[in-house]
Amino acid sequence: NIARMSSKPSVYVTRPDVDESGLDLLRESCNVTTWSKASAIPREDLLREIKGKEALFCALTDRIDAAVLDAAGDQLKCIATISVGYEHIDVHECKRRGIRVGYTPDVLTDATAELTLALLLATNRRLFEANREVYNGGWKSWSPMWMCGKGLKNSRVALYGFGRIGQEIAARIVPFKPSQITYTTRSPKPEEAAKVNAKHVGFDEMLSLSDFIIVCCALTPETKEVFNSSAFEKMKPHCIFINTARGGVVDQKALTEALISKRIMAAGLDVTTPEPLPLNDPLLKLDNVVVLPHIGSADIETRKEMSRITARNIIAALKGCEMESEVNF
Ligand code: DGY
Predict the structure, then answer these.
(1) What is the rounded CA–CA span in Å between residue 315 and residue 243?
(2) Residue 124 belongs to some domain of the structure
(3) Which of the residues in the chain have pLDDT under 50?
């Protein structure tokens, strides 16, 4: 039995708090070791634990770079992250070493689009601000212009990024009757855009004409901090800025200044730099900001399936088969 056990490939899982169904799948054909706590594994523990493993099941809370790959050793065959974003993995280094990388696109598209709409509506209709007034005595009586926000109807809504998630957000915006949906990407996507009647616009046009800007792009060297002070300077004063992509796309200091000075009207952020946002961060003192703790894909069935996809990616790679969702280098 011991001999049979040891012939199974070894997998290290950095998050024992992922849905058990994924871990059960892995256990059928692998020796699975997991980090012991329901929190991100400290770097020194990851460097120690990954030694000798053939596969790594990780999350966006883990930075997987050359040092981690060195610590693992040459037998490491694949890494699978339980996320669609994989900017925390040095994929170039993986490619150089022939290590395959899996991720979880598609499954979380609807959940993330849904959360984006929830965050947008909470921000533009000031739900949390209004809710606080109920509890702190600020609600005196119905009042004609009190807690008014800026509706989506007849407004110009921009998507920065128009991949799977951006397209699903756009589809959910349509019933709110915007005057125009626009999208900003390197190259136009006419077929996808036609479904929601979206117009391709350049970055500056998006900044100066939009009532809502929704960030739904991947974090890459090109998108890092594209929303900086000069970008916020170009926005309309009543612009509402929503980010459910990655905090790194935004120069957060510049955003904070734009919100304090009311250079823009409000922001809804599911992602920040850093995460978690320190309790003394100036953003948390502002009424015109809604901050959520990175819960875009946090829908029960979605997260369960993400756990299983990550497991299936690993099982496939260890068999030398195509992964269900593999990063194409
Ligand atoms: C992702 O998958 O990249 C999200 O940010 C977390 O689900």
Answers:
(1) 34
(2) yes
(3) 1, 3-4
Identify the pLDDT of residue 2: 53
Domain of 242, CATH number, reads 3.40.50.720
Sequence length of the chain is: 329
323 in any annotated domain: no
Asked if this assembly's ipTM is beyond 0.85, the reply is yes
Element (H, E) at 10: strand 10-13
Return the pLDDT at 6.
63
Structure tokens that stand for 8 in this block: 């199974």
Distance from Cα 329 to the centre of ligand 1, integer Å: 19
Beta-bridge partner residues of 242: 214, 268
Write down the catalytic residue from 88, 92, 238, 294: 294
The structure tokens listed for 160 are 């920065």
Closest C-alpha residue for ligand 1 atom 2: 83
Output the 3-class SS for 30-99.
CEEEECCCCCCCCHHHHHHHCCCCCEEEECCCCCECHHHHHHHCCCCCEEEECCCCCCCECHHHHHHHCC
Q: How far is the CA of 83 from the centre of ligand 1 (A)?
A: 4
Q: Which amino acid is it at 190?
A: P
Same domain flag for 267 and 122: yes
- Is residue 236 classed exposed, middle or buried when 0-12, 13-18 and 19+ CB atoms within 10 A define those classes? middle
Which residue lies with its CA nearest to atom 3 of ligand 1? Answer: 85
Ligand 1 neighbours by CB, cut-off 6 Å: 60, 83-85, 108, 296-297
| Amino acid, res. 42 | P
Q: How many domains does the chain have?
A: 2
Report which ligand 1 atom has the smallest distance to the Cα of 104.
2
Q: How far apart are CA 34 and CA 42, in angstroms?
A: 13
Residue nearest to atom 1 of ligand 1 (CA): 83
Q: Which domain holds residue 150?
A: 109-291
Give catalytic status of residue 238 as yes or no: no
145 CA from centroid of ligand 1 (Å) = 38
Is position 329 within any domain? no
